[in-house]
């Protein structure tokens, strides 16, 4: 394949081919991409071939059992996602051009973000800019980071296992996790328990409850308590983990300050360890390369100011 001149590629490239390629890369297949795009499979295959001809490189290695992006394909996918992320912001940026702040803010968060600082930032933002709007989407922490990196989210708030060098991080607060059970569990209401009493018990947890992931301290505690190795249920949503605990599927971890009300209402019972619970930090994620409208800038600035002005000890939620 002959390589095109860079200046010709920009003007000659059919941008619909890039859109099709992004979908192919994300669903990892021609057939699934055709279903996603509501097109016939030959049309998608032809689009991929035309794009490869245009860039002068092979983008996908595939056969009956394998589908894999080439090194050039991975590079093109990453750059395409950034391009589309920037373009997707244009309507929001144009909406923000007026004497009043009327833009839209897209916030991506993990499901267990419970913080007075975040709540105060939202309240002050709405009071100061009543014509601006907000969308808060809840996702796994890895997906939150992905949305921020791809500039689909204005900013994100989530757990962090590995830092992305393309993003900026600021700790919002520190929370502590404890084990809990529901009213139907045999340990409910019992006092004076130790970790030994949890040995072999079935459990539920978060998808990030692994030694190599964001809830590593919780995973280590699970191992120390010798809970049953077969986890009964998992979810990326705190609400669903709580549901499984209350329903009696097994013991599960929850942030102490989030579970406080359920404990007071008799829906949950705190289990050991009672001392030195595992600590997890929750971060604000920002992409410095993202072009923000005035609403996005205002809310982000307000939250960053609250974080900077609040001493660390006041951002540690013991429970």
Poorly predicted runs are: none
Classified by CATH, the class of the largest domain is: Alpha Beta
How would you characterize the largest beta sheet?
8 strands, mixed
CATH architectural category of the largest domain = 3-Layer(aba) Sandwich
Task: Round the mean pLDDT to the nearest integer and report it.
Answer: 89
Organism: Mesorhizobium ciceri
GO molecular function: DNA binding; DNA-binding transcription factor activity
Domain HTH lysR-type: 13-70
Keywords: DNA-binding, Transcription, Transcription regulation
Protein model, in words:
The chain is an alpha/beta fold and 319 residues long. It has 2 domains: 4-93, Winged helix-like DNA-binding domain superfamily/Winged helix DNA-binding domain (Arc Repressor Mutant, subunit A, Orthogonal Bundle), CATH 1.10.10.10; 97-318, D-Maltodextrin-Binding Protein, domain 2 (3-Layer(aba) Sandwich). 42% of the residues lie in helices and 19% in strands. It is built from 12 helices and 12 strands. The protein has helices spanning 6-12, 15-27, 30-37, 41-55, 71-88, 90-95, 116-128, 141-149, 216-225, 238-246, 256-264, 294-309; strands spanning 60-62, 67-69, 104-109, 133-138, 155-158, 168-181, 203-206, 231-235, 252-255, 269-271, 279-286, 316-317. The strands form 3 sheets. Strands 3, 4, 5, 6, 9, 10, 11 and 12 form an 8-stranded mixed beta sheet that branches. Strands 1-2 form a two-stranded antiparallel sheet. Strand 7, helix 9 and strand 8 (231-235) form a beta-alpha-beta unit. It comes from Mesorhizobium ciceri. It holds the Pfam family HTH_1. Keywords: DNA-binding, Transcription, Transcription regulation. InterPro entries: HTH-type_LysR_regulators, LysR_HTH_N, LysR_subst-bd, WH-like_DNA-bd_sf, WH_DNA-bd_sf.
